[in-house]
Amino acid sequence: MKFEPVKKVSSYELIVEQIEAGVREGRLHPGDRLPGERVLMQTFSVSRATVREAMRVLHATGVVHTRAGDPRGPEVLPFRPEALERPLVRMTDQEGTTRVELIQFRLLLESQSALLAAATDNEDAKAKISACAGDLATLADRATTAESQTELREEFGVLLSEFHSAIRAASGNQLLQATGQAVDGALTTIARRRLGDEADGPALAARLRQSALDAATLNNHIQAQDPIGARQSAADNIFRFYKDRLTDEEQQVLAPLVG
């Protein structure tokens, strides 16, 4: 028989594991209150410092809300996308995550978000998507003027993020919203670098016009409640935006998600 090394676990980690298990298994529900600090000390047979460290970790990860001096005890929180966003952002910032992996993930995420957005009956959410598409079109029209090209690139990154965010919100899926937000920052940086490599003037204007046209096409599929068309359009748009700066090998990896 082969034995495995025993992992040393701190007392506060065991408390965290028990409370997280209670939430996961449905024995603790959003709005429930944990016992006060003194009762927790007695229950777990640990010091005040250990209880406080466990509550600090649970608070930081979005499991409970704690407030110093609250006699009611820590409150169990409902799931929030922000709780998932933080570790995903940290992961996408790691050097080991390649740009093709990020684009690959976004192709999957945004295309499915678009499919669900097209299937929804939430008219307010769809109106937000239309407004964002209109803002991109307005920006593309301004690209022919003599205003700062740097400002155009920056504004484009913001508007494009808002457009995709509106689609993810319309999907009604909190996990898609959280994961999309997590990778949005990294991919917006790539997009800005992409535009930063463009020549000013006509080349940049052409790039913005194409992106605005892509957004309009995707919006049309969503407004027409065409889920399959919306999914394909979203994938096509993302792939087209990056394609001419990708290596042949990267394109081969991404191609199955587009075709």
UniProtKB/TrEMBL annotation:
* Record keyword Transcription present: yes
Do you know which SMART domains this protein is assigned to?
FCD, HTH_GNTR
Q: Which residues form the HTH gntR-type domain?
A: 9-79
InterPro entries membership = GntR_C, TF_FadR/GntR_C, Tscrpt_reg_HTH_GntR, WH-like_DNA-bd_sf, WH_DNA-bd_sf
Listed A to Z, the keywords are: DNA-binding, Transcription, Transcription regulation
Pfam families named in the record: FCD, GntR
The entry lists its GO molecular-function terms as: DNA binding; DNA-binding transcription factor activity
Q: What is this protein called?
A: GntR family transcriptional regulator
Q: Which organism is it from?
A: Nesterenkonia alkaliphila
